[in-house]
Amino acid sequence: MESQTESAKNLYELDEKPPLSVTFISALQWFFVTISSSLVIPLVIGELYGLPAQQLGQFVQQTFFLIGLVSLLQILFGHRLPITEGPAGMWWGIFIILANLGMAAGQAPREIGQSLEMGLIITGIMLITLGAIGFIEKVQRVFTPLVSGGYLVLLAVSLSGPVVKGMLGIDYFSKGSGVQPMLAAVSLGLVFFTFIMIRSRFKYVRSFAILISMLVGWMIYLVMDWTKPLQEAHGFFALPQLFFWGPPVFHLGTVLTSMITGLILVTNLIASIAVVSHVVNVRPGEGEYRRGGIMTGVAHVLSGAGGIVGLVPLSIAAGVIQVSRIASRLPFIVASVMLILLGMLPQVSRILAGLPSPVGYAVMFVTFTQLLGFGLRDFERIMLDERNLLIIGFGLLGGIGLMFVPPEALQELPPIFSYVFGNGLVMGVLLIIFMEQIVLRKKS
Description:
Helix content: 55-70%
Radius of gyration: 21 Å
Largest sheet: 2 strands, antiparallel
Structural class: mainly alpha
Number of strands: 4
Strand order of the largest sheet: 1-3
Strand content: under 5%
Order of helices and strands: EHHHEHHHHHHHHEHEHHHHHHH
Distance between the termini: 28 Å
């Protein structure tokens, strides 16, 4: 991994060790950002699969334990970048689609979970093999500024809907509830408050703007009595449960769907490494992509063994580093250990699970503006001639357009195809690669 010169130098670069106080506060910031960005998915999946309150709490704990463990493995032995892991949006969709199909066919939710465990484990073994033989580096070569820029713009656009919906308090108090004006006002205030702190002349206010906004928002919700009742927790210490849904069961359709999903998510891994490397001022080599791919395979095996939604590196990490200007590995390692401990302490996890979702969405909105900026900067790195404008326009319009296609319109397709074609982010990236590498390929 080579250093590269950047105009925007971080307060603490990748290999530097901040003072103890800065390390601890920065670790807290990583900790809360990870919780706010990943909490919703295990709650939604647990409720969809009909888990009772105690098992739902255990499912959330399993998720955070493995997020911390995989993040630690990646930064120590994988790509070695501060990129938080989180449940993949595609895996979330697969869990939901297969649950709906399976329940309609009379399958019990637990049986569906068992087949997904096997699918994740086999997909993980496939990714480890592909990483070991150098497949990841070959895919990385097609990630030109056109592709990475398109990916980041589409990612920001695809997440803008759920984030803004969450900021407005829709569905917060009850399912089907509309915009909550008071919650929306607080969310908007937190966004502007964060932007003001980012521009502060005090460097530590700038660095910890995300954490400060999160805590301020949480305090407002507590004072106004807008927080939800905490879930009941039993015991003080609990180890993760192996095969949460039961022993893995082989189901050919689920395994094939899982393997295709894993192949598509290679693009997510490459994009996350590329954008975070740019922010931490290093140039990743083939070794980083190879080790990152192997560890992503390990993450899938562990996700299957734990029965949780498959984990992948999240590009949101780039926005956090851009805001804080702290690229050091040390705070991230501390935060990963904190997440592992969180996954073993039910009483603590039930309190942190009470973080109001509109507060988390408001702070995430700020980091997503950074991601959109990174995408536009990638487009600046190329000549915007007729060819490149055609490729960008085709990919972005195709991807964003598919985001507006109602899911029920794709129900006649096989499950994996319905989800791929219904995923504007994935299809937009594939369209850009197809146009650049095949239709409008430059002659050597």
